[in-house]
Amino acid sequence: MSAKNKLTLSVQYADPRLQESITRPMIRKWVQAALFAPAELTIRFVDAAEGQTLNREYRGKDYATNVLTFAYNEGEEELPDDAPTQADIILCTDVLEREAAEQKKTVEEHTAHLIVHGVLHAQGYDHMDDEEATEMEGIETDILATLGYADPYAD
């Protein structure tokens, strides 16, 4: 691992349903593939109740969503160049499993995609307009291909 991609990673299974199938080494591999700079990240798996509470409290949306990224040094003006990205990435197991089934993907494929998506958000990528969305989706697709996963946006 290069110094630019130094990673401190914590994985929390508040909802333990995926603990056996989505392992820490898998998560580390997916996170590292999406990192462009040093990072200190927490990946936390939660149930629908915790996911809904977090989404309501921090985004004003009263439902559980698949992934939430809380980037703590986003927009900081005076960080040193080597300052690590700091973020919590929350994945809601209930939504993740439902979406995987609806999209006819494995839970592993969908989890890999959502983690890559969350890590990109932590590094400042967004999809608020069509141009940003196209750029972010292209980066996600490229990263997932290097990991052996299909294009998550293909029909």
TrEMBL record:
<keyword id="KW-0378">Hydrolase</keyword>
<keyword id="KW-0963">Cytoplasm</keyword>
<feature type="binding site">
    <location>
        <position position="121"/>
    </location>
    <ligand>
        <name>Zn(2+)</name>
    </ligand>
</feature>
<comment type="function">
    <text>Single strand-specific metallo-endoribonuclease involved in late-stage 70S ribosome quality control and in maturation of the 3' terminus of the 16S rRNA.</text>
</comment>
<keyword id="KW-0698">rRNA processing</keyword>
<dbReference type="InterPro" id="IPR023091">
    <property type="entry name" value="MetalPrtase_cat_dom_sf_prd"/>
</dbReference>
<feature type="binding site">
    <location>
        <position position="127"/>
    </location>
    <ligand>
        <name>Zn(2+)</name>
    </ligand>
</feature>
<feature type="binding site">
    <location>
        <position position="117"/>
    </location>
    <ligand>
        <name>Zn(2+)</name>
    </ligand>
</feature>
<keyword id="KW-0690">Ribosome biogenesis</keyword>
<dbReference type="InterPro" id="IPR002036">
    <property type="entry name" value="YbeY"/>
</dbReference>
<keyword id="KW-0540">Nuclease</keyword>
<dbReference type="GO" id="GO:0005737">
    <property type="term" value="C:cytoplasm"/>
</dbReference>
<dbReference type="GO" id="GO:0006364">
    <property type="term" value="P:rRNA processing"/>
</dbReference>
<dbReference type="Pfam" id="PF02130">
    <property type="entry name" value="YbeY"/>
</dbReference>
<protein>
    <recommendedName>
        <fullName>Endoribonuclease YbeY</fullName>
        <ecNumber>3.1.-.-</ecNumber>
    </recommendedName>
</protein>
<dbReference type="GO" id="GO:0008270">
    <property type="term" value="F:zinc ion binding"/>
</dbReference>
<dbReference type="GO" id="GO:0004521">
    <property type="term" value="F:RNA endonuclease activity"/>
</dbReference>
<keyword id="KW-0479">Metal-binding</keyword>
<keyword id="KW-0862">Zinc</keyword>
<dbReference type="GO" id="GO:0004222">
    <property type="term" value="F:metalloendopeptidase activity"/>
</dbReference>
<comment type="similarity">
    <text>Belongs to the endoribonuclease YbeY family.</text>
</comment>
<keyword id="KW-0255">Endonuclease</keyword>
<dbReference type="InterPro" id="IPR020549">
    <property type="entry name" value="YbeY_CS"/>
</dbReference>
